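Class, look over these structure tokens:
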Amino acid sequence: MTATAQKLQSIYEKIELPPIRPIITRIERYGGQCACCQTKYVAPVPLGMEPGSPFGSSIQSLVTYLRYTHAISYERLSSIFGEVFGLKISGSPEFVVINKPHILTPRASQDREQLCLIPYSP
């Protein structure tokens, strides 16, 4: 059979999503003391990596969107983040959307130390 005698019979596509995993950036600040003047110093924090919530803007935006647009409970959000993204949110979930320490409520300030970012393992 020649190429001119053949006709396209069908077209279809199969779509897959790549695995979604969090990108975790660890900030290590070193410091010391000047040998000449004895002044203590600590390395500056990289821009955008200030202390506060460990969650970046993409996670904050997604949590806010799912929570307030789709009325998904914090418990369900925690489950979704574990199952879909391999990210376990422990502690008080309101920290996900709070990035500045000075806007924490007194209750949130007490719970802040309990918040941690842990790779999810079912």
Observations:
- The longest strand covers residues 87-90.
- The helical segments are 57-69, 74-85, 106-111.
